Amino acid sequence: MQTYQQAPVHTGNDALLRAYTPYGYHVVRGRPLLAFAGEAVAQAPHCYLLGNGKRGYHTVQMRFLSPDAFSPFGRGGLNAYAYCTGDPINHVDRDGHSPTRAVGQATGLVWGTVGMLSSLNKASKAIVKRSIAKAEGRPIPKEFDDASRTNNAMIFIGGLAGTVIKAPGAALALSAPFESIGAELVAGAGIGAASFAGVGKIRQLLTDMRSTYLQARLNRLPFGELAIESIKEATGWNRIRGQESAILEPLPEKVLLVRLPAGRG
């Protein structure tokens, strides 16, 4: 069986044709520089060192010779030794992991952080708004409805889970050689654009949160309590206990008294 997608391209009538199985096995004739999937042939029979020698792949065993650092929870998949996640017809592995592993891990991490910050910011703004209204003697704004608070908690927990799961994979991905990551960024331009948009959203959320906490500071609301109560609201703790979000009391206003020395006379 010959896979034209991954076999070397030859032109001319005198070209040597090579037939490969889906996993790259073929009868060796000569020592070509490039073979299956355009990869260099290793010194060991039927072996390729993918990712600039990072991981050895054996075409007879149809598996890698070492486990994938991104398995089992990252893009390496549950099987740490599988080649192309068991689908070599529709995929090709250039670096021993995945052509978009660094970008993909970073994208999940970025958007998980977006979900977390978005929910936390919504909770903080509601607490500050209600606390200031009470301190100024105005009617306290109504709490968000139950469905909205539940959805906000689900977004926060989902974002937190996504961040925790993706963070180790992203850290490992960024430890790869820069030239490999550069190739992945080109291959995954669409995912890279999504990551870029996510970073922009994070910057926007941080600016909004800074404004909220500045408003809290101007109204002498305690930062520590605001942070704790915001987390309790964002995680759904208050919702589970049937409580509304907290209303904070302003800190006592400090008055500086200065004693002037008595004049001589």
Automatic annotation (TrEMBL):
Record's protein name: RHS repeat-associated core domain-containing protein
Database matches in InterPro entries: Rhs_assc_core
Highest taxon of source: Bacteria
Origin species: Pseudomonas putida (Arthrobacter siderocapsulatus)
